[in-house]
Design brief:
The chain is an alpha/beta fold. It contains 14 helices and 15 strands. The longest helix has 20 residues, at 107-126. The structure holds aspartic acid (ASP).
Length: 436
Amino acid sequence: MVKVAKFGGSSVASAEQFKKVKNIVELDPARKLVVVSAIGKANNKDNKITDLLYLCYAHIKYNISADTIFSMIENKYLTIAEELGLTFDIQGELTKLKSELTKDIDEEYLVSRGEYLTGLLMAEYLGYYFVDAKDLIFYNYQGKIDYEKTQDAFNKLIKKHDKLLIPGFYGSLPNGEIKIMSRGGGDVTGAIIANIADAEVYENWTDVSGILMADPRIIKNPREIKVINYSELRELSYMGASVLHEEAIFPVRDKEIPIQIKNTNNPKNTGTIISDNANIIENKNIVTGIAGKKNFSIITIKKNHMANEIGLIGKVLKVFEEYHVNIEHIPSGIDSFSIVVETNAIKPFIHELVAKIKNIIQADEINVTNEISLIATVGEKMKNSLGLSARLFGSLGNAGVNIALISQTNDEINIIIGVHNNDYEKTITALYNEFK
Ligand code: ASP
């Protein structure tokens, strides 16, 4: 059995962190496939290598010297190598990269060097075989992972080498060019590797002991979620709870490989297990998590007798489509319905949009309410829990929160409510206290 262990930027931010990684990896012989991010922040004031590389590129592009930034980057790698007594010629790699810093340098190639160089150091330190991700993670021209080619390459590698170190965040296109993922993409590499290796578990090592039940900026020391399923995680991350890159879910979900979020700085803590395995539902809270986002607008459209008119909502939705506005929710009544969207998405043309809708369906009245926060209470056990809505709305009533909108889908995995931005924190606190 094999485990994939992916370590994020803060887990590799210093020689001390490298040591923690080594201890963790050596503790379990199944941790044969290790993925690393680029060196991240060692403290709050520090910079991530990836950010510095982007900055480097911007300087070069505008003909400004990138020397100072590059030496900051150099310093980080050299210090870690020196403190750990590594013999790999990292200075040689850095000098080579510096010589490539011309206007023609490819941005994605440059940015990918963050994980590439971190991977080289970690490979030596762990005694793992270094695999350049350009020779393992293959994309097709549509920008999708070519699983067949990736699997083939993996099979060949694993025949020769038992333990692999793979830098995250990039791969290559059919012409050999480097392609990077979106920010935080190291998580995605880990998930792809877990998929092709048929891993027993995908461990995602970070600097928090798992996913929290609510935003710690609002709730002091919120509970950690012990187990969560993939759909719940999707709902929570969509609503702003960020721990794992969203796209990291699909490769492992397909093969029913659980993800375990673990803390490099506190490895004994079990962290959070993300899995659809029905057996673990027993251990779950009724509410798994609460998350929310501010700054939505509710556009309420009223028209008498609209309940008898077919195709009316469709016409309105078409207008939003024309303006490329993503719709979040559509709560409806008998003679009215509302469209909920992010305020920023409609700001530039709101008056035009309202006039157009009014005209197209001959609406009686259209009202726009801004400064709305959406808050999702998520939990797969909620649907079988009698009296849950009463508790939820009761707790908000007691807290004096006025509810502007309620939305719930049939699968009942979440209940979304809209409140005024001013009540955002109060709402999350009331819900958390009720269901913690
Ligand atoms: N280094 C990349 C970033 O900062 C990818 C990652 O850390 O997963 O976004």
